[in-house]
Description:
Elements: E1 2-5, H1 10-44, H2 51-62, H3 68-76, H4 79-83, H5 88-116, H6 122-150, H7 159-182, H8 191-225, H9 229-239, H10 249-256, E2 264-266, H11 277-283, E3 292-296, E4 299-302, E5 305-307, E6 314-318, E7 324-328, E8 344-346, E9 352-354, E10 357-360, E11 372-374, E12 379-382, E13 385-387, E14 393-395
Parallel strand pairs: 1-12, 2-3, 3-6, 4-7, 5-8, 6-9, 7-10, 8-11, 9-12, 10-13, 11-14
Helix pairs in contact: 1-8, 1-9, 5-6, 5-8, 6-7, 7-8
This protein binds 2-acetamido-2-deoxy-beta-D-glucopyranose (NAG) (3 copies).
The site of one 2-acetamido-2-deoxy-beta-D-glucopyranose (NAG) has 5 residues, from α5.
Amino acid sequence: MVEYKNMHSDENKHHKKRKIFLFFSLASLLVVAITVAAVVGSQKSKGGGGGSAAQAVVKSTCAATLYPELCLSTIAAMPEAASRIKSSKDVLMTALNYTITTVGHNYFTVKKLAAKRKSLTVRERGALHDCLEMIDDTLDELHDSKSELKNYGLKNYSLSDHVDKLKTLLSAAQTNQESCLDGFSHDGADKKVGSALLKGQMHVFRLCSNVLAMFKNITDAEMAANGDSFVERRLGEENEHEWPKWLSAGDRRLLQASTVTPDVTVAADGSGNYRTISAAVEAAPERSTRRYIIRIKAGAYRENVEIPRRKTNLMFVGDGRGTTIITASRNVVDGSTTFNSATVAVVGDGFLARDVTFQNTAGPSKHQAVALRVNADLSAFYRCDMLAYQDTFRDSRL
Ligand SMILES: *[C@@H]1O[C@H](CO)[C@@H](O)[C@H](O)[C@H]1NC(C)=O
Ligand SMILES: *[C@@H]1O[C@H](CO)[C@@H](O)[C@H](O)[C@H]1NC(C)=O
Ligand SMILES: *[C@@H]1O[C@H](CO)[C@@H](O)[C@H](O)[C@H]1NC(C)=O
């Protein structure tokens, strides 16, 4: 989940609209779910036992997906697990297991592809490298989904938190497949590699879509059956346009406080601990569960910054948007992929930023050039600018 507040960019308006739209559609979905739950509830008491009962569960669960034939063949491909199926959740878990195995195979296929073809351009090699990174992300997200699903239904767990988290993980896993293909969407891209990729990526995309659809089908009914308090709370919360629930009180304070005590300071003029932001990120603790604050003094920082997966819970505090500027110019025309053109790329979860401008100065003739890319969960931006000509901002988590 990613949150943006008071952010200026051309894409921002559009983006906000999308978010609002998302909540609206969720609201109507839930209303529909309530009516459906009554029907599902009344049907539950029926149904026999034995193998045909398992088949009936598979059939009805797969019916909720966009690719039901694929769903059925997925379950059929795992006969041992299929024989143990009792509920929709078992179908979901079996499909998830299958998806994880498939993504694993896909990783090696893409790796081989990269090794075999000698004629690839620099950008195509870069794109394949991006794909491997994204496939790896997908695997992580699917494994996280699996452990999250194991806790599903525990009494001490808020169902809505759980559902939010899983929906985010599964949609991210799905979106990664598209982002990977983006790298081969330009004119003159290697057709063989492009079509080989397309096949595997679309397969995984559909598998993820099915898992997500089954999950929604199960949880929408359960949430509705749980009473409507969730619906009201959810709507009330979003209407206020307040901070997202997952953002801790401490983090909200850090985003708004007039002064924040940093762990380290970056200053281009040498008056801080580091001269470059990348050096400060490199020196930051790994897998931190505590917030680690990097103050970035006023100035223009000409660098590409990556917050890798292992650098969790970092926060950038600038001196003000328009004052603290991170700027670079990687772009598609000069050989980057859209994915790796980002001036700042955030992969580590729990990233926060305030009072910073993210900029990609590649002009309009350079096609896709991204100022900020976010592949991280639980990330928020407060009073930040995103400036570029095209594809200013990419959020793989929507
Ligand atoms: C679940 O899927 C079934 C089969 O498509 C559908 O009839 C039902 O309305 C869905 N339930 C919810 C809550 O979306
Ligand atoms: C999924 O795979 C795990 C092993 O990673 C196994 O323990 C579990 O039983 C499988 N679940 C289903 C429903 O096949
Ligand atoms: C809920 O209980 C399980 C074990 O019963 C525990 O592992 C988990 O951390 C608990 N979750 C919360 C949110 O307290």
